[in-house]
Design a protein that fits this description.
Blueprint lengths: L1 H8 L16 E5 L4 H12 L8 H7 L6 E9 L5 E8 L12 H17 L4 E4 L2 H6 L13 E3 L2 H19 L7 E5 L4 H10 L5 E5 L3 H13 L4 E4 L9 E6 L13 E9 L16 E4 L2 E4 L3 E4 L14 E3 H12 L14 H13 L2 E3 L3 E2 L2 E2 L7 H4 L1
Parallel strand pairs: 1-3, 1-4, 4-5, 6-7, 6-9, 7-8, 9-10, 10-11
Antiparallel strand pairs: 2-3, 2-13, 12-14, 12-15, 16-17
Helix pairs in contact: 6-7, 6-9, 6-10, 9-10
Length: 383
């Protein structure tokens, strides 16, 4: 196993950022959602001259790989402006995304953050589980010097909300007559979606594990005269929902069965994604939420196309990572999204306008079965 680790982490395959201090506009911190994706990343790092590693060996090796920059990323605005960055993989094993590994995973995110700081990145986006671990606790990160961090959650909310509206339009649904259920409602993304959509629907159902946080969030909407129900169990709601946002991963999609209306629109915005196989929610209209598309394009060096962004459309990225790219292109190096509960409709509108100026829009909608809308059109043409 020692030789395999050396071949993965050797200098010949590393991304040397030492010569780029001051030239790294942004850094993206992420990890792989599946062992297949992790295997593909290691294959690129090892190089084509090495045979693929067996699955069992990958599972042995991955926990020993420290966080590191694996590639350079260049993103281009629709105006022709460019921003240069690095992608840093924290190498959190895909089977260790639960609470049992909280300390180890936090240490990996801190290590990845330190890589970004050493590289001189001006703004860092925390992708996927990294954002969940740090949410509202930026003091857990290393001393930042001139580097700022963002969870990227505000742009994620913008794309979820826009995706819900687009699905309603595609399905001929009346948003104002709908009952909206948000699972994971008290998190940063869930509460941001609630604030944006609650005034637009007939009734809101908020589900989360912490009842006190639910009560505080519900009070915001009750003050505005919005009909709202709260529960720590979806089975306690009085009516079926026809719009659903899963802003947190579910132990099983079956938890929604019987609690959503036939043909409900369901946005899978949890991380990792868990509702993609539509067969688990018969007749539901499921789509993956929170994704954007860079119309100006992006390049990876080494070439990780289709590996770091595993989507059926080109140049599609999670909103949490796109927020840092958009801000870098805008030359606004600021911690736009910093913690739980600060996402408002005004902030969502602001970051969406910033992204749009740089040619970053809602990605074409799709789910685990493939594209939902015509793949021959780009996101910008449909917005």
């Amino acid at each position: 196993m020692g030789n395999s680790v050396a071949s993965v982490d050797g200098r010949e395959r590393g991304v040397d950022t030492r010569g780029r201090i001051g030239n790294v506009d942004f850094a993206l911190i992420g990890h792989q959602e599946s062992w297949r994706a992790a295997s593909d990343v290691l294959a690129v790092l090892r190089g084509p001259e090495h045979a693929p590693l067996p699955d069992d060996e990958i599972k042995d090796i991955l926990p020993w790989i420290p966080p590191r920059a694996v590639c350079h990323v260049e993103v281009e605005s629709r105006t022709g402006a460019k921003a240069h960055g690095i992608y840093i993989d924290s190498f959190i094993p895909p089977d260790r995304l639960g609470c049992d590994y909280l300390r180890d995973n936090l240490a990996r995110v801190r290590g990845a953050a330190q890589c970004a700081i050493r590289a001189g990145a001006r703004i860092v986006s925390l992708g996927g589980f990294s954002s969940i671990l740090i949410e509202g606790n930026f003091d857990l990160l290393p001393e930042k010097h001139d580097t700022v961090f963002t969870t990227g959650n505000t742009l994620t909310v913008a794309f979820i909300v826009r995706g819900i509206k687009k699905m309603c339009a595609l399905e001929g649904r009346d948003l104002r007559g709908s009952t909206l259920l948000i699972v994971g409602a008290t998190g940063d993304v869930g509460s941001g979606c609630a604030r944006c959509l609650a005034p637009l629907v007939r009734r809101v159902q908020l589900c989360a594990r912490n009842m006190e946080r639910l009560r505080r969030l519900a009070a915001e909407f009750e003050f505005e005269g919005i009909e709202v129900e709260i529960a720590t169990d979806t089975r306690r709601f009085s009516a079926q929902a026809d719009l659903v946002i899963c802003a947190a991963s579910l132990a099983s999609p079956s938890l929604l069965l019987g609690r959503i209306a036939p043909g409900a629109i369901v946005c899978d915005a949890g991380y990792p994604k868990n509702l993609a196989p539509s067969a688990e929610l018969p007749a539901a209209k499921v789509f993956l939420g929170g994704l954007g598309q860079i119309t100006g394009g992006m390049k990876f060096t080494p070439d990780f196309r289709g590996i770091l962004n595993r989507h059926p459309f080109p140049d599609v990225v999670h909103g949490c990572l796109l927020e840092g790219m958009a801000l870098a292109l805008e030359r606004r190096f600021e911690p736009f999204s910093q913690g739980r509960g600060f996402i408002t409709p005004e902030r969502v509108e602001e970051i969406e306008a910033i992204a749009a100026r740089q040619g970053i829009h809602l990605a074409p909608l799709y789910n685990g079965d493939g594209p939902i809308e015509d793949s021959g059109h780009t996101a910008s043409e449909k917005n």
